[in-house]
């Protein structure tokens, strides 16, 4: 057997012949080939052709501490030498997983009681659905199964998480959703407002929709509501003021669990530890991934609040084991990376930089693009933003989606050395590493 690299072929050709790329046109890739990144340092990447980019998206919203962190690399190396793997099944454990659980719980909002690790945001949200069902079954309410989720939400792509996601391209031709998901309106005032409706009135309408949906379906059939504090992949959508406060109250009144999908917002993206801190609400359960390791290792976690934890703990008297978890739950190398990453965030006060330099980013984007005849909305806070292009800002008219205007602008930005991500409605998303400086922001906006 010979599996040594075919040196007579370029990286691009090897990729074209062998790789099925996520969220990429398979046929398109055959023509263009991928851009292959070789190195990263700080907020900058270098591709295989030597071109340097300012990474305005922190990989996929995840490299919060920036590239080239030797401290994280060394923690990974040391752990790999000492103990590369052991599991957490049947009351076993390793040092890094225990420390990470403690650190994450102390950072988290609300009253979180226990942490269960996974490998991706998608598996975290699958776990959330199972725990919401488990909890209600244990409480003698097996009919409480439906999940409330919002249009344009992104919760991942596995069978359960993909069902929660409210974007057609994740469902189309995959036979999703398969879960009993009840969809709610996307809380994007810019696109969803009715003529003459104020932002407050829009918020009240969304809350009313939630109430009438619960009445129609029956609170006794609904297990949970899941929401990203700021929707990421759906287009960087901030809800109207007061939304989460009002939604939380309705959920509490109806005994419906609130799952906060903090996969993007968690670990400083908004200049606060979590999105729930930014908006001031207390979820019952939280999903995290991405920023927990700044992408240096795959790791996710589900945090369960006290009420859910106590029910799970008490039921074990008759159920025995909690029958869920992965081979790689609390993988020691991933958790070692998380611990080193969280130490950096604390020591370098990266959440504060996200707030301060983030405020500068927001201001610069508005200075530069407000009133531009092709810009409809500029939105964001901290280190997450979107500039949405528009065919006619006065009427909020979008471009014909088949024209791919956002994609073309993002491709042009990339050719000039800036990575931004084109999203639906031709919004250009930005979510840079939390370490960026004012000079980086100036370069990005220019
Ligand atoms: N939840 C949110 C809010 C996300 O943004 C993502 C990924 O972008 C996921 C879940 C899924 O995470 P993963 O791609 O690690 O499965």
Can you describe this structure?
By secondary structure, this protein is α/β, with parallel strands linked by helices. It folds into two domains: 35-57 and 349-445, Alpha-Beta Complex (Aspartate Aminotransferase, domain 1), CATH 3.90.1150.10; 72-347, Aspartate Aminotransferase, domain 2, CATH 3.40.640. Helix 11 links the parallel strand 7 and strand 8 (257-261). The strands form three sheets. The chain has a seven-stranded mixed β-sheet with strand order 4-10-9-8-7-5-6, with helices on both faces. It has a four-stranded mixed β-sheet with strand order 1-2-3-13. It is globular, with a radius of gyration of 22 Å. Helix 5 crosses helix 14 and helix 15 packs parallel to helix 17. The chain is built from 17 helices and 15 strands. The structure holds pyridoxal-5'-phosphate. Pyridoxal-5'-phosphate binds next to helix 6. Pyridoxal-5'-phosphate binds at residues 60, 120-122, 125, 154-156, 228, 232-233, 261, 263-264, 289.
CA-CA gap between termini: 52 Å
Report the uncertain regions: none
What is the CATH H-level superfamily of the largest domain?
Answer: Type I PLP-dependent aspartate aminotransferase-like (Major domain)
- Largest sheet entry: 7 strands, mixed
Mean pLDDT: 97
Q: Can you tell me the number of structural domains?
A: 2
Q: What brief labels describe this structure?
A:
single chain; about 450 residues; alpha/beta; Aspartate Aminotransferase, domain 1; Aspartate Aminotransferase, domain 2; 7-stranded mixed sheet; 17 helices; 15 strands; binds pyridoxal-5'-phosphate
